[in-house]
Amino acid sequence: MSSSSSTSDSESEYSNLQHIPDECWESVFKYLSDPLDHESLSLVSSHFLSLTNRLRTSLTVSDHVLPFLPALLRRFPNLTSINLTRPTGELNALLFQISSSHLPSLRSLDLSHQPALPSIALRHFSRKFPALKSLNCSFMDSLTDKDLNLIAECFPNLEEIDISYPNYSGIADAESRVNALASGFKKLRKVNLSGSHIVWFSSIFDLCQNCEFLEELVLLSTNFIGPTGPIGFANAILQRPELRSLALGCSRVGFMSEGDVISKFFELVSLKEFTCLELSYSPLSDECLCVAAEEGLPLRELSLPGCFQYGYGGISSLLRNCNNLQHLDLQCTEFLDDRCVIELSMLLGNLNFVNLSENSKLSDSSLFAIIRNCPLITEIRMERAGVGKQKVEKDCLVVNSHLKFLYLTRNSYLNDESVEMIASVCPNLEKMDLSYCERVSEGAVEVLRKCCKIRHMNLARLGSELFRIDFEIPTLCLLNLSWLRIRDEELSLISKRCHRLRELKLDFCQKITANGVTQVVENCKQLRVISLLSCEKVAADVVAWMVFTRRSLRKIIAPPRFHLTEGQRDLFLRHGCIVSSDLTNATDSSARNYEPEFLEAFLYNRFYVKLIFENDVTSHNHLDTPNSHHRSPKPFLTTMIPSSRCCRHQEPHLPDECWELVFKHLSDPLDHESLSLVSRHFLSLTNGIHTNLDVSDRVLPLLPVLLRRFPNLTTIKITRCFTGDINVLLSQIASFNLPSLHSLDLSHQLTFPTHGLRQFSQKFSALKSLNCSHTRHDLDVIAECFPNLEEIDVSFRRYKIDIVSDWVKALTLGFKKLRKVTISGNFTLGDSYLLALCHTCVFLQELVVIQTGPVSMIGIANAIRKRPELRSLAVNCLTYGFFSEDLRKGNVTWDFIDALVSLKGLNCLDLSYSSISDQALCVLAEESLPLKKLSLRCCKGYGYGGISYLLKKCNNLQYLDLQRAGFLNDQCVVELSLLLSNLKFVKLSDNAKLTDLSLLAIMRNCPLITDIRMESTGIGKQKLQEEEDCLIVNSQVKFLYLASNTWLDDGTVTMLAAVCPNLEMIDLSKCGRVSKSAIDVLWSCRKIQRMDLALLGHELFQFRFRVCFDVPTLFVLNLSQLSICNEELSLISKSCCKLKELDLASCHKITTRGVKQVVKNCKQLRTISLASCEKVSPNVVAWMVSARPSLRKIRPPPRFFPTECQRDLFRRHGCFVGKWSD
């Protein structure tokens, strides 16, 4: 009986799992950090197998893969890239085989390291895949101009080609190849000609002249000749002013003189879109770097490895003007010392990657300066440097939570003390390389202890005699212990504490034996790769035991004296594991990276046969007949795959951390509810990733249950709907164990819970963020309870005038660690208070001073001078008319501008409702502040000249708000959009002069734009034809707000839908002339999730809203105040069956019948509003709650008066019925 019930439970759980749409699963699986996890997922069910197959986009073909190639090509229909660098067979036959497969998405082919171009098969291949975009022919033995002409004939739309490093390249060969490229490929965007040894300047000129779309040119290890000299190269570059990336490097040092490089640099300054520059091992002077700096090139990547003849003056001048730099490589730079790096790091606020390897003068000071001054840094490489030479004071240490990858190999001075210090300031490290640091021992253990997210550690040749780990490390996946003198006892401890290891290297560990290896294999149940190279004491016969014991193993490098026979190799391969018997086999092409394609082919075939076998057993057909063709696989299946590995009712064998990462990336957090119904395991996981809790009167009875259910809460908000005793509530919360809680919101409360906060602080003294806006707060109590606060919001306080001084004293003296302060709406606090605040809070980075009475611009200026580290500033001096006229206007003074330009790290500036002149904006522009966000909403006094000059200098701007800018017209926006290549958000609402031209200019000239807000403008006034050149598709736009555009009509909306195919949200509310085009949006934008159509077409007499096609992605739909009828509503509910939120307020034509159709068809419906729907019966509410369990909120129709018993019944069903504000 119990067996049958458990089976039914598992079937029910699996059924719940299937209710999640495929698009959601695909989105989830894409975020798995390790692609090898797809293998585990594919074993869950045929459904998951199909989903993971569709996500695979690349395939590498080797000799082992060839027998399974047809199956793999059928299995992965969405392949975009195929790599043919490994097979040693006939390449023509292989291409013919690939051509016979249906791969509609294939865009890239890699033929590198081949002896010659397979010309016969390539013609046949091109007939099936004429739209190929990328081709790699690097390292070929023979590649002539005739071959390139053939490629041009076969693939005329090629955009990327790599013909670098040919095995033989004379002057004639290189010249002919470049000329063939120049004449045959018109649509090239990226060309790699590295390693061509000798190239004529005239050939590069022809290439740049003919390839009009060229954006990236790579010429590493290349020497140039020709009568025109470097001038010829400069002229070639001038042919392509759109060039974005250039990589140059001489194959012989000194081949190009310093003057040559300077000449080229003088010409490069004309490339206004230039973002990436690499000049490897070339002579370079300070003069040319200064020239490039003056032009303000928008560089994001700068690589100067091995360059010489330049110094600190040149590179500092360039970096001072390149505010957007994210990648910097100064490897092997002679002049670099600690002082240089400390000063340069202060100019690199946006840096993500830096390589300072092979600079022996650099010590700990350089490393910690980068960690301290580059808040966005994620990867640092300082190999073969002097880290460890100079000790750093602890006062100079600042925690950097962004740093994830740190490479410190071969730092001979590095010791335990330095490593422990690094671990304390980099808590989120994921990978660290300490190999060949022979003075480090216990410091490596401290890294594992303090860096709780560490995944990869390289400790090869570490100077440790004993390596004992006595704590759990659940995140560690890869560990390299090669050349360490560890013993079996230590290895056993490691395997127990790091039981989720996937790859372990034990090369040349001479003291370990088979006993230690056995412990590793038994304890590490997810182990995939293990290397035992030159482990002399490990018995050879342990290999077979490992393969059969740990089925997760995919690659083993065997110990000495292991002789692999052909029979053993085949047997191990049938188990999905590659075994290499020595170093040669371990590094050859047949075993490299354990051939994931080959192993997947085995797993796929085994799993496919298993499914057939199971289906036949359940149908009781073929297995009962003596001649059944399904009998033969049975011995293979029973010995190779236990049924538990392919049980369709089991969840994937993935670690909890992996599932949590998957669930966190679900687009809608409400989907967690569906996941929690799958199984107890999923319930536990979804509980663990819930971090926010809002407390209201409705939640209060369930609060103890919720606090136990969600142990990882970080934020608790007591909403304004809470009317109980806050002191009792806080005392109740303090009785629970919430170790991650660091934020509390008490805004809009009528009383201040002094007693409750004191009890709360005893349990949560480390609180980081507190919101007390719109309350009668007591800062003395707050400072006493939470001295470590980093963020506080005390805006719009209800206070008495006579306690202001005490309030100021508490805020300025009680909080030493504040990083963000919001003090808006306090009309009796003056300049002295703000000055004291900025003087006391030494860590202050963000300041919000809005609508703060007598605080003047001069006072703000004096205050921010005290805090030059400020990164975000929002100010205005609105006073509502009871102070001086000058303050009421909010004039931005020159003293304020002078203080503002001293904030060299300022990336966010909000001057809304102020008065600022063009001259002030020009001064800001001259300083090239690294602004990412700029808001001039409702500002006055400035014009086009000032804002255009500022935007020209702010290359990194991502957020721009110019709402209600009186001077703005279409011409201004068209010209400004050309300066905003990095813009992601723009708001131009309340500008009546702007029409369709402005909107389409932003879409055309801002390739990264995702959110456009143009409400209450003139869109629709000026008609554009679909064939006009200004219409360019922008696939990045996701959010479009066009509410209250009275001129907007169907033609314009249809055109916008055509150029924004990836829209997810559109707001067309109160657009009276729009009707049927809203349906065109649903048809053209296949990713649409939210639509606001409130009061749509109210100026039209007849409007029929008929949706006759499926819209599977639409989740939120607002149809309030539309004159739709039951028939149209029924069509909508059938076409948009995955709706989660529907607003039908004031839809006077719909009746109870229409509402019932919606509730029946929309099985995921959570929220519905029926406010003012006069023809809807109030009796339908109870039916809705019982008929659709997914419902969570219902705004009832008129005349609905629920009893208290009904309210309780609805809440027991998990549904709230009433006004949203209740």
UniProtKB/TrEMBL annotation:
SUPFAM superfamilies according to UniProt: F-box domain, RNI-like
UniProt cross-references to InterPro entries, sorted A to Z: F-box-like_dom_sf, F-box_dom, Leu-rich_rpt, Leu-rich_rpt_Cys-con_subtyp, LRR_dom_sf
A Gene Ontology cellular-component term: SCF ubiquitin ligase complex
Residue intervals of the F-box domain: 653-686
GO biological-process terms attached to the record: SCF-dependent proteasomal ubiquitin-dependent protein catabolic process
PANTHER family documented for this protein: F-BOX_LRR-REPEAT PROTEIN 2, PARTNER OF PAIRED, ISOFORM B-RELATED
Name assigned to this protein: F-box domain-containing protein
